[in-house]
Amino acid sequence: MAKFSSAALFDLKDPPPWQNCCYCSSSSSPLSSVSSATQQQEQQQQQWKTSDGTRFEVPVSGSNSSKVAPNSLQPTTAQSLIVFKTPADFVRHLRQHHCTVEGGSYVCRYGYNGVCSSLPLDGVSDRDYEMHVHRCHVNQQQKESQIKWSVFSAAQNLPAVLNDPSRSKQTNFFTKKWGDNFVEQQSTGTSSQLPEIKWDHFDFYLKRIGKRYRVHTRVSKTALPQVGASQQNQQPIVSDRLPNGGTANLKDIPEVFLTQDMKLHSPASFAAVFPGIGNDGEQAKQSSRLLQEKLSHYLDIVEVLIAKQVAEKSSAFFHAMTSQDAIMEQMREAVAHVSRLRSRLKLLDDTVVRESLQIMSLERTRSNNNLVLERLKLMSTVHQTQPMIQLLLSTQDYVAALDLIGTTQEILSQELVGVHCFRHLPSQLNEMERLIDKMLTTDFERYSTADLNRPLAKENGFEAVEKVLEEDKLICIISGLLRKGSLDFIDTYKEEAITTVRAVVKQLVIEVIASGEAEVCLTGAGEEAQSLSLSEWIILLESATITLLKLLKRVRAVHDVMQQTADASAGKLTDDVTFMDTEAFLSSKDHEVVQTKLSNLLQSVCNYCHERCANLVSNQSLEKSSVSAEQIQQLTEIVERFSDGCEKVCGIQSVPLKMALRTQGNRFAQKFHSERKSKLALLLDSERWKQAEVPTEFQTMVDNISKGNFMWRTKVDQNGVPVISNAPQSMLLVEGKPFALVGAALLLVQIVGEYCRCASQLPVVAPQLSWNVIDLLRTFNSRSCQLVLGAGALHVAGLKTITSGNLALVSRALQLVLWLLPHVKSHFQSLETNNQTSSTNILTGYDSVEKDFASHIKEIENKVLVIICDAVSGQMANWDARPPVPSQSFRNISRQFVKLHEAIAPILPEKEVATIYRVVHKSFKDKLREQLLRNNIVNNGGPQHGTVVSELTFYMETLKALKVLPDEELSDATLNDIWLK
Predict the structure, then answer these.
(1) Which residues, in sequence order, are bridge partners of residue 57?
(2) Distance between CA 272 and CA 13 in Å, rounded?
(3) H or E segment at 102?
(4) What does 430-486 look like in DSSP terms, one character per residue?
(5) pLDDT > 70: what percent of the chain?
(6) pLDDT tens string 475-495
(7) Closest to 398 (Cα-Cα) out of 481, 485, 484, 480
(8) Sign (positive/negative) of CA torsion 687, 692, 693, 697?
(9) DSSP single-letter state for residue 786
(10) pLDDT confidence of 147, banded at 50, 70, 90?
(11) Taking Cα atoms as reference points, which of 55, 76, 57, 75 lies closest to residue 65?
(12) Which of 23, 388, 711, 811 could form a disulfide with 860 if both were Cys (CB 3.0 to 4.6 A apart)?
């Protein structure tokens, strides 16, 4: 809607407010400088004011008066306002005519109805009044022109504002004020098609018009020349004489005919023009004739004056007519130019503009039609969404169905928003999406139950290859669940797998119990409360491991399908699974969550299987059964086979079952050790500590141990009776060295060999058996020390005394154990290669045992030396150098040496025997030296010296006869150190 401003109808360059008095007219003011003659002349003229403020006059009547007033001019009266030349005149006028003094206070009356809107009615002082007049009336801003409002003056069109398609719903519509600012103003940029107009473009026009305007101003200010007396006497060009001889003068015409607001329908005006119209008779007729004559006379005066005026202005009229002809000629040329221009514009409009605009309109129409067509096609496609979803669900393509729902919802929210026919479709799609979610969850639960509870393969559980049940269906379900973001299906499958494991174990226990004759009760977990035989337990564990391993393979197959589907959904290439090609919809974060859940799935199911089997292995009924090493070995093979199979399937090692097996193995090892330890203790308590014969199997055993072979077997015949190839031997040959041993020592070697063989059969209990061997050897060492060195055998075995032979046999047995220790230690080290801590502890234990045995052997040797040395000391204390020779003391010493030789020579090696006799010989010489010193016997060749020499000769002969020392140590020179120098 176009705006109409007041500038189009009124002059914007109004005079200052002090130039005119808005409430006084010039006719009533004594300040008017216009003469009465001039006022009368102005009454006959009408003033016209142009938009630039210039005024010009035209006659009220005349033939050309209609051609002068243009449409853009406004008529005003000369008597409307009083004009002031200076602000001081305006202030003086206000003080005289628009101010009252009341009690010394000045009250301003310049305003409507004599009331000033700016000054209080109670009045102010003279100085304040002056300031008020200058501030509010002299220097006030020019008020806007008062124009009459019309429909064309409206700044806004309310229907256009409300129906504006480019504006959204207005929240502050009812709070806005109507006016120019009702709609936000927007600045319009300059058009690139229009040239930029500057003041320089008007320089030529201003120079040309400025010269004429200055000339016009100068001429208008120049006063007309005064008419002289001689000129006044000249005869006017046109006489102003009337036909009756009178002079034409406007003063003769009544004023009522010269007023602009003459209204004949007014009774006063009518009575002034037609006096005496209502009278009857002859007088009325005379009045009518007289009025007619008067009016004719008035008409003659006006005509004469007009003719005189025309005569006086004839030159101006002729000049105006001439100018009018030139202007008309220019107008005709301009009209011709305009016509040609319009014809050309019409031609351009018809040939270029209209067709171009029509092309643009047609292009816009076509684009709109294409947009509508695309929107209709899109609506048609959306309309087919529900049947397509049903079709996809029938083919179990859940991912495509969910993608279609998501795409349709996006289209409805973006491109088809506000379409009335689809107002219920979003809620229907949401409901269908929830239905698909429920379908996926239900189908997956059904699939998991059907897959885990179907019969297992009949092949060997460790070799059978499990196939996935309905792999395509499983892929579709998993893809749908991943597309929905429901990642809890992995936890659901894990719980179902654990439930299946629990049911399988319980069913196997029921089958084992049903095959037996005993009546047992089952707990809720599936383990039996009463005892079963060991064979039944082995059968149960073997069947459980085979079945559970098959089940784990089935779980692993489903896990692989889940893994591959998740990888494909995340955009990773997979070659092991085939399904529909779809875009990657699984985010990297969700893919990591799925990876973690799948890894946890295998670990949890595998660990639970091991825990269930561990509950079977660690049941209390096994503790009540007598378990053999072979049975423990069989259990170990089952557990190892199951553990290896689980590691291949799941990629992890489970600890619970191995820990349960280790616990049972340790219990077996403890029982095994307690039996052998008790047996060894009984053997030691009943041992007479005499040399025993060595059977052939013991010799074979030692020979194999020397080769590092503890798995030797006694030869048996067809009936299982051991085959004895040779007769028992008196000595045990250990790597070619003879050992005279007691029966307890031989049985100790046999028991240690059993420990080693058991550890080879049961590596799981090898560390425990190793410690048991150490404990067994320490028991043998401490118990033998108590019985022999501590003389405990006198009370336990009923021995009368502990002889050197007994001590020698114990020493030899301990030496055999020292020989056995390195072989046993290396054997257990080979079985404990995977446990460095245990190997270190075992080495420390064996080193400690070896030190204990070496110390015990040393103590036995010292004991033997103490016995013989005490005997020598006792005899030498009673000896004196007198005949007979040899003396009884030397005879007794020789007898003791012979008995010692008879006791230890068959038992101990010659080197040890020589060591003992060398120590005894040294002790004898020390005691003899002391005795010689005590008796003051010196090497002087006297009788006592001869007696001593004879005694020593007898002593040396005895040693030579025993052959326990080398000949160089038995020479006479070796006895020279007994004499004091």
Answers:
(1) 47
(2) 43
(3) strand 99-102
(4) HHHHHHHHHHHHHHHHHHHHHHHHSPPPSS-TTT-----TTHHHHHHHHHHHHHHT-
(5) 77
(6) 788 877 877 777 788 888 888
(7) 480
(8) positive
(9) I
(10) low
(11) 57
(12) 811
Rounded to whole angstroms, how far apart are CA atoms 97 and 133? 13
What digits encode the pLDDT tens for the residues 189-238? 777 778 888 888 888 888 888 888 888 888 877 654 544 444 444 444 45
pLDDT of residue 753: 87
How is residue 801 written in tokens? 């005394």
Strand partners, 46: 58
Sign of CA dihedral 245, 247, 253, 259: positive
Q: Say which DSSP state 203 is in.
A: H
Short-list 469, 474, 626, CA closest to 537 = 626
Q: Is the pLDDT of residue 141 over 60?
A: no
CB-based contact 775:677 (threshold 8 Å): yes
Name the residue among 937, 934, 900, 938 with its Cα closest to residue 919: 900
Cβ count within 10 A of residue 912? 19
- Count H helices and E strands in the chain, helices first: 29, 9
Phi-psi region of 281 (alpha: psi -120 to 50; beta: other; left: phi over 0): left
CB atoms within 10 A of CB 956: 16
How far apart are alpha carbons 919 and 861 in whole angstroms? 11
Question: Alpha helix locations (H) across 785-835?
Answer: 793-796, 804-831
Q: Confirm if 384 and 408 have CB atoms less than 8 A apart.
A: no
The token duo for 914 is 């020589």
Class of residue 469 by CB neighbours under 10 A (exposed 0-12, middle 13-18, buried 19+): middle
Distance CA 912, CA 900 (A): 13
**Residue closest to 643 by CA, chosen among 504, 549, 535, 764:** 549
| Mean pLDDT for the stretch of residues 386-394 | 78
Mean pLDDT for 333-350 is: 92
Look up tokens 């020019």; give the residue: 142
Of 315, 242, 298, 257, nearest to 60 (Cα)? 257
CB atoms within 10 A of CB 376: 10
Evaluate whether 765 touches 669 at the Cβ level (below 8 Å): yes
Residue 197 to residues 65, 194, 201, 235, 752, Cα–Cα distance (Å): 38, 9, 7, 59, 123
The whole-angstrom separation of Cα 871 and Cα 888 is 13
- The secondary structure of 612-646 as a DSSP string is HHHHHHT-HHHHHS---HHHHHHHHHHHHHHHHHH
The DSSP result for 897-948, as a single string, is HHHHHHHHTTTS-HHHHHHHHHHHHHHHHHHHHHHHHHHT--SSSSHHHHHH
Dump pLDDT digits (tens) for 905-934.
Answer: 888 888 888 888 888 888 888 888 888 888
The residue-averaged pLDDT of 337-352 equals: 90
Residues 6+ apart with CB under 8 A from 309: 59
Q: Which amino acid would we find at residue 262?
A: M
Gyration radius of the chain's alpha carbons: 74
pLDDT band of residue 799 (cuts 50, 70, 90) is: confident
- From the CB of residue 676, how many other CB atoms can be counted at a distance below 10 Å? 22
For residue 527, give the nearest of 506, 547, 545 by alpha carbon: 506
Per-residue DSSP letter, 4: -
Distances (CA, A) of 62 to 75, 307, 326, 654: 18, 10, 22, 130
- For residue 474, give the nearest of 404, 555, 528 by alpha carbon: 555
Residue with tokens 């719903």: 169
Q: Nearest 10 degrees: CA dihedral of 555, 557, 563, 566?
A: -100
Q: In the structure, what pLDDT confidence band is assigned to residue 621 with cuts at 50, 70 and 90?
A: very low
